[in-house]
Amino acid sequence: MLVPLALLVAALCLALSAWAGWFVVADRAVVLRQLWGGAVVEGVLLVQAVVLAVVQATGDQDVDGVLLWGYVVTQLVVLPVAAAWAFAERTRWSSVVLVVAALTVAFLELRLMQIWGA
């Protein structure tokens, strides 16, 4: 796994959670630009999943595949579910949902780095 790519994902998630956190403090609902920000994070996660698949297929790293792909799939699911929830919930709580989802993906990313041994 490429450490710079993992750090990029974590940084993007932390930035998204800070942005949504600002909306929580301001008592505002999620806006479409924040959902596009989540889509950017999701795109980087997809790139990372492809890179992980290629590196694991070449056999360069001996990692528990079930655990690794459990984290990868969970990361790929969390933000779209949160985005759908935030889109449906047009109150301040939509911003809270986005904060929690972005922080969850950031922590999953750090755990993924530990599993990979980076």
Automatic annotation (TrEMBL):
Q: Where are the transmembrane segments?
A: 36-55, 67-87, 93-112
Q: Give the residue range of the signal peptide.
A: 1-20
Q: Which domain of life is it from?
A: Bacteria
The alphabetized UniProt keywords are: Membrane, Signal, Transmembrane, Transmembrane helix
Protein name, per record = Integral membrane protein
What species does this protein belong to? Cellulomonas wangsupingiae
